[in-house]
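Chain A, query sequence.
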Amino acid sequence: MGLFRNRRGTNPNRVGSFSDKQLASAARQFGLVPTEEIDGEAAMAPDPRFERVKSAVRAGNWQAGAAYLEDAGRDWAERNRRSNALAAEAVTDDGWLLAWRTARRDDPGAALVNARSLVDLAWEVRGGGLAGATTREQFAGFHGVLAQAREAFAAARALAGDDPCPFIAELPLAMGLGYDHEAFEAIWAEVEQRDPYHVGAHHSALQYWCAKWRGSHEAAEEFGRAAAAKGAPGQLLSTIVLDAYFEYEITDETLNPGTYYQQPHIVAATDATLADVAAAHAKDPHDRHIPPARHMLGHFLYWQNRYEEALEQFRAVDGYAGTTPWSYYGDPAERYARVRNYCAAQVAHRSPSAR
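Chain A, predicted structure.
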């Protein structure tokens, strides 16, 4: 839902202080992935198991999709991730999902994937442009599909039991249909009751509280700070306040990023997230919430002139750029590469023998 992805195709910052030749040389020195090979659509390497499941469902084997979701068990973060991946696949071809729903009419997994897929479809219909660049027909289609999704979520919630995923998945619907604060808080209360530390849910809710949707900069920062305060090391809830700070900067053209990101409270939040990511990595280096956090950290560290630390984050996720902050630019891979290469050039310049 990168509604601002095209507004910053250029940005007057330090990237221009090295020549393209110097930037490329620094990237080679550190063994970074060439710009033309960076995946600007994906945030990280694909899940091998899901790649097999995707092939199976495309061939009509809905049972493979059902088993993939069921195997997540009560790991709600993983169930949320898997249902999201299946829903995205159903937008392209939902024949296998229809077969699943027909065979198992009361399957909570099928109901969840169906509801999520309708939200994804609505955003496909709308497109990723700003409101002024979106046609009346796109808006009409968008709201029409979202109305169907609302009914689908009612069915999914009825089958949910203590599963928070239908409520988490409804949060983007709340943005799109403009739920008032009371209605949104009712959904959020169900999420917190079932899984109060779900990082993905908090990222989604933060978007609702942003000024570009149904809140304000102040509301978003308040939500982000509260999330960071309640999280234990390794839960990655510190990343929510970074989202809030980023959203403020990216939507307010009067701010100077070089000054904004160096404010003491933002530097302190960055340090807290560095510790949080380190704890999460120590607990589970394969946690798929970590790469997006590293990308955002790299962005903050870059603006804080902390180039070695930024480069460390970029090297851990290199080759992929399909996530914030890069997805807010017209060419995510190009923007990521230039920032990454600038950090590499700074490190190399300060220590020519750096490897």
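Residues 1-12 have pLDDT under 50 and may be disordered. The longest helix spans residues 136-158.
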